[in-house]
Amino acid sequence: MRRTFVILALLTLGLLSYALYEGLVAAPTEQTMGEVQRIFYYHVPSAVTAFTLFLINFAASIIYLAGRNQKADALAVSTAEVGVVFCTVVLVTGPLWARPVWGIWWTWDARLTSTLLLWLIYISYLILRRYSTSGQTPLIAAVLAVFGFLDVPFVYMANRLFRTQHPQPVYFGGPGSGADPRMTYALLMNMAAFFCFAALVVWLRFRLERAQQDFEETQALEALLQPDARSPR
Amino acid sequence: MSTVPISHRNKYLKFGIATTIIVVALGYLAYTGVQQSKSYYVTIKELRGMDNTVYTKRLRVAGNVEPGSIHRTGLHVEFMLVEQGNKLPVVYTGTEAPPDTFKDNAQALAEGSFGRDGVFHASELQAKCASKYAPAPQNAPAAPAKDMSQADPGATGPE
């Protein structure tokens, strides 16, 4: 297991380095925005990765609600935590890009507002999981996750349905959208690298959560088997 | 465990109904929201079509900058917004210079109020970005498309 992890980690590192080169050096400079447009290679892959992780969290939460599956719950925590990290990257790179090209750091249009809301929903989810002392925490969290996920398709559709400051989609958008093939290639490389990196971290976090669940279960069993000793150790 | 007791089945049913109601309500709100207020900004045509309240509202108007119409005097910028043949003169007086992307033919968004003089008085100016990314011309000085395989140690650029 450790060996597999090291090999995958090295591969991911290689892919991340290659994608970094593709995004910062190999891809052509954009004609109207200039070098700052290269934030695109971080902003968009982070968003797609966060959406994917929240989708897995959504599926895992449903599975947990249906059958109280412990593994599903562990996967839900792991994907939510890593998803929040990527969502944070989106909310940091966005303003950094907006300031030079729009002239403003932030505005309350549908795309930006719904993305901030998405971040807040999953922050609440993590805080709930962390500080709730109820034995029903995974259940409550799963219900929150199922409804919280509804914001993801809304974020995705926001700049298609509404007039926004955020540009219309570059891909799967209307006429007058699109990017140079070399830019698309750099974007896809970064997306692949981000996916691998996210998968790796989720895997580690998942194993940690499983170990934690086992530990808690053992502790609970021990407490049951020793009725005299109120608190073992 | 294999058969779900009646009480549980009722609970699931209630939960299902509640879920459906919430989802339908949210969907309805989102749908009507799209119908009535796409108005993060208005177009010039919509601005012209508004009733007298247009003079009292704080508005955002979007359009393209007519080439050659930009006149700058420090932080005071005058230009013409064009959108599908409709023109709107804009006077911007703000605390910050407009971004570099604000130039001829760029999509721009002005925030402020529409005066009875027919001029839009903007206090904020944003550029909108196209969703079409094209490479800068190769001979442009700002595009050092360096090829790593041809690294020439004698000719290192200003970077």
Please provide a written account of the structure.
The complex is a heterodimer of chains A (233) and B (159). With 233 residues, chain A is mostly helical. Chain A contains seven helices and one strand, in the order ααααααβα. Chain A has helices spanning 2-26, 40-67, 70-102, 110-131, 137-148, 151-161, 181-225; one strand at residues 178-179. The longest helix of chain A has 45 residues, at 181-225. Chain B has a five-stranded mixed beta barrel with strand order 2-4-5-7-6. Chain B contains two helices and eight strands. Chain B is an alpha+beta fold and 159 residues long. Classes of the chains: A mainly alpha (233), B alpha+beta (159). At the A-B interface, helix 3 and strand 1 of A face helix 1, strand 7 and strand 8 of B.
User: How much helical structure, as a percent, in the residues of chain A?
Assistant: over 70%
Total number of helices of chain B: 2
In helices, the fraction of residues of chain B equals 10-25%
| Coarse structural class of chain A | mainly alpha
Report the strand count of chain B: 8
List low-confidence stretches of chain B: 140-159
Percent in strands of chain A: under 5%
Query: How many helices of chain A?
Result: 7
Order of neighbouring strands in the sheet with most strands of chain B: 2-4-5-7-6
Beta-strand content estimate of chain B: 25-35%
Silhouette of chain B: elongated
